[in-house]
Amino acid sequence: MATATKHEAIADAVLDAIGGAGNVKSVTHCATRLRFQLVDRDKADKAKVEATRGVITVMESGGQFQVVIGNTVSEVYQAVIRHDGVAAGESTSSGGFMARLIDLVTSIFTPFLWVLAGTGLIKASLAVATTISPSFGDTSTYAIFYAASDATFQFLPLFLAVTAAKKFKANQWAAIAIVGALLYSETIAVIANAEGVDVTLKAFADGGGDLTFFGIPVLMPAYLSAVIPAIFAVYVQSKVEHLLDRFMPESIKNFINPMIVIGTVVPFTFLVIGPLSAWLGDGLAWVVDNLWALSPAVGGALLGAGWQVFVIFGLHWALLPLFMVGLTTVGYSLLTGPLFAAVAAQGAAAFAVFLKTKNKDLKGVAGPASLSGIIAGITEPAIYGVTLRLKKPFIYGVIGGAVGGAIAAIGGSAAEGFVLPSALTVVSTINIGNFTLQLIGTGLAMVIAFSLTFFLGFKDLPATEPEAEAPDAIEAGDVVIASPVSGTVIPLAEVNDKVFSSGALGNGAGVLPTSGTITAPIDGELVSVMPHAYGIRTASGVEVLVHVGIDTVKLDGKHFAPKVAQGEQVAAGQVLAEVNLAAVTAAGYDTTTLVIVTKAPETHSVAVRAEGAVAGTGDLLTVAR
């Protein structure tokens, strides 16, 4: 029997930990994550998955069980889908609008993401070559390389036809035929201008002009590279196909259905979808350009600071359509300029950790993660394995990204073509805006993140990381924090939310409640009050957050009945809110209640005093000197 490869071993271990291949509805992947749709979430052992060698972390968002692998995710994905019963590439989301949007974008774009990135790197290399030797741009060698780099982007709608058809469960070959007609309207211009060609074809070459459909004038926006028309056309195709499948006889549907679908969707796209998509794309590009023009420094700083935060929550995918609109309208998107600083800063912060940490395991993660972030533009290993784990380095990286992003934006820098922001691809910005300011911004972002991390320092991990033990006795000056609810204590690392479980907001614990009465865990002032979350500040300056449930902010207060208001003084044991736990659970939300020490003196440590069952108002945490 052949020995399993490293990637096969990871795939086998992950599948075993999530309940086997039979517990997988479908699986897709993006640049760094396997994205599972599970039959039964309760069968998946999150801790076991995270303990798998080769897995960085696990996140759950938008109804997906996301396993972060890193650069080798595509190889692990291929090993996963070789298992019988594992459906590849069909992802569905039952979450809100943003979750569905992210699911749609990842499903459609990620299958060819690396091809786009690779050809983008070729184009970036050509930009460098022609800068060094302008005459090279006049050679046939350059032309051939340029064709290799640009064809993928010019004919991107055909790629989208395949992936969108898979997403919308439409006929892929009919989708290619429909989108091919859009591209034909562009390429026929060359033929129509040739001598001896039927004059009716020249309407295509005139950008619309006399082109009509049964007397209805047809506007002809550019379809080469167009993203929005292709996706909407395939979506409409899927609806027409599903309608026809209901009543078309089996004996004729194989050839009648494609005839009707292509014969109706292509004209509808030329008449309606294309012009509306062009208007939408131009409108989005206009909004971005004008907002950016108001203050590029502010825009660049916000994007440079926020990009890695978006990555944590998977929200960066929601910006991809905006990037693509810019690329297809003017050849670049100003939103991409600040991203190089944001990515490089996290890599630099991780490198500072690598040099400074005394923890051998952390050093072993930080070194490769910093190289992955700086050189390849893949920052998730650095974020989850290093900077966010230590908190301060992540913040320092955000600061560096903000400064560098502002400088790049001031210079009007942007990537030409689609690339993953990295040291290798920064040359893609050489022809757009001020390349010198891009280099200064990216370099300064790295210097700031590295210097702050190295010189201001961070709380290093010990050589080994034993679980914290509750102190035997409460000493004078210790602050005791009670449980706000009766239930079962859950270690923070096992809480089903990466932001909480990583300790990014502070140390503490979770409680799976058996009662819907939420009480104050400590005496103090209510500095923040939301239906699902309460912040309390003690007289000694310790701040505690009580957060009822995971992602329950999406309920907009439904099923929660607050009993207090912001600014009130509360006593330990006082009722903060009544919660209908059954209704929250029925709505699909985890009711785990988090108790987090968000602020405490630097010299103090937070320890968990309880395990297993805990009574409401029973001791849960200690903030000790």
Description:
Helix content is 48%, strand content 15%. With 625 residues, it is an alpha+beta fold. The protein has an 8-stranded antiparallel sheet with strand order 17-13-14-15-19-11-10-21, with no helix packed on it. A 4-stranded antiparallel sheet has the order 1-2-4-3. α8 crosses α10. The chain is globular, with a radius of gyration of 28 Å.
How much helicity do the residues have?
Answer: 40-55%
Extended strand count? 22
- The general outline is globular
Number of H- or I-type helical stretches:
20
**Helix- and strand-based class?**
alpha+beta
Mean pLDDT value:
82
State the end-to-end distance: 57 Å
Q: TL;DR of this structure?
A:
Helix content is 48%, strand content 15%. With 625 residues, the chain is α+β, with helices and mostly antiparallel strands. Strands 17-13-14-15-19-11-10-21 form an eight-stranded antiparallel beta sheet, with no helix packed on it. The protein has a four-stranded antiparallel beta sheet with strand order 1-2-4-3. It has a three-stranded antiparallel beta sheet with strand order 9-22-20, with no helix packed on it.
